[in-house]
Design goal:
single chain; alpha/beta; binds dihydroflavine-adenine dinucleotide; TIM Barrel; 2 domains; 305 residues
């Protein structure tokens, strides 16, 4: 229930407007968000990416946004993402650009999202950069996979995120085998879904996660193990999968940097998922929703000068 409350707070336009027009509140919350978000501007995300690159981490970069209902704003988001592709390529960074399809048109019309995706894929392919589609609520899964499959038939530089918590994911992964060769990012899933569609955090979910990693490897997918769950990470290492070509660990910026560092020191490939943008409020609410103890950290960060 707490997670659902945080997610609904993230979506309340009146609260967002209040935060944005109240400088003191804005500054305080932004201080809490700074742990997870590289900054408001693309340049700040690139700087963070360069610093991480110096420590031998690869990065994914997301311009924060979702559920954009205005076509012109979707096109602006595509332009901004194109700028990330350009900046990464100019700096010779092994970055990946990650986004929600609902940020680039899915809420307006799937065709708009497809057009935006193809425009980015074209530019990214020429620049040698990989794109990555995030996975949103279960109500959008079918549409997201349909847009992905269409684009993946034309471009091999697009990856897709799958959520282990959804029952359908076992079949979805299987279906990708035949028609998409892009990388698969496996996450547990950040959304509260009806129990008929998903399973909650549990040993059963962890076992399913590991089973999906095994299936993905057997099917020849390159895979990102996107979790902060140390038990899963250690099991992936114990089973020898972490040394296979195409397997990498990926974690969100600001969460478990100690685990990232341990993996890096053991010479496993680690990617850090960086976000930036003025929608950091949304992102902060998501991180608190998925791990409620973060609210205490947020209060400490707000209180500290
Ligand atoms: P779990 O939630 O079981 O947490 C395991 C442990 O990790 C916790 O006990 C805690 O120690 C630590 N931890 C986890 N979350 C934390 C947090 N917010 N703050 C501090 N510690 C935390 N989801 C989705 O639905 N669609 C998507 O496209 C993506 N994309 C994505 C990309 C990448 C690179 C990552 C790492 C994650 C996502 N997610 C996502 C989010 C994902 O679904 C999931 O909600 C979070 O990763 C948290 O789940 P864990 O797998 O870490 O396990």
């Amino acid at each position: 229930r707490f997670a659902a409350t945080m997610k609904s707070l993230a979506r309340r336009a009146d609260l967002k407007e209040y935060v944005e027009r109240t400088p003191a509140v804005y500054a305080l919350l932004q201080r809490a968000a700074a742990k997870y978000v590289a900054g408001d501007r693309r340049a700040e995300a690139l700087e963070a990416g360069i610093r991480l690159g110096e420590k031998d981490y690869a990065v994914s970069i997301e311009y924060i946004g979702e559920n954009t209902a205005d076509a012109a704003a979707c096109e602006d988001a595509v332009r901004e993402m194109g700028e990330i592709v350009r900046d990464l390529a100019e700096r010779g960074m092994s970055g990946r650009v990650s986004f929600d399809l609902s940020h680039i048109g899915l809420m307006v019309d799937a065709e708009l999202a497809y057009k935006g995706l193809v425009a980015l894929a074209e530019q990214a392919e020429q620049a040698g950069i990989e794109l990555f589609i995030s996975m949103e609520e279960a109500a959008k899964t079918e549409e997201i996979l349909a847009v992905y499959r269409r684009a993946a038939a034309r471009y091999s530089n697009i990856g897709i995120t799958l959520q282990a918590q959804l029952h359908r994911t076992v079949q979805d992964l299987n279906r990708l085998r035949s028609d998409a060769t892009g990388r698969v990012r496996l996450v547990k899933g950040a959304y509260q879904e009806p129990s008929g569609l998903s399973i909650p955090r549990s040993e059963e979910l962890n076992e399913r996660y590991l089973g999906l990693v095994e299936d993905a490897i057997e099917q020849g997918h390159r895979i990102s193990i996107a979790t902060h769950d140390e038990g899963i990470v250690d099991e992936v290492i114990r089973r020898g999968w972490a040394r296979l070509p195409g397997v990498e660990f990926e974690m969100l910026y600001g969460i478990r940097p100690d685990l990232c560092s341990r993996l890096k020191q053991a010479a496993y490939p680690v990617r850090v998922y960086l976000t930036y943008g003025r929608e950091w409020y949304l992102y902060l609410c998501h991180r608190i929703a998925e791990y409620p103890p973060n609210i205490y950290q947020a209060i400490v960060d707000i209180a500290s000068e």
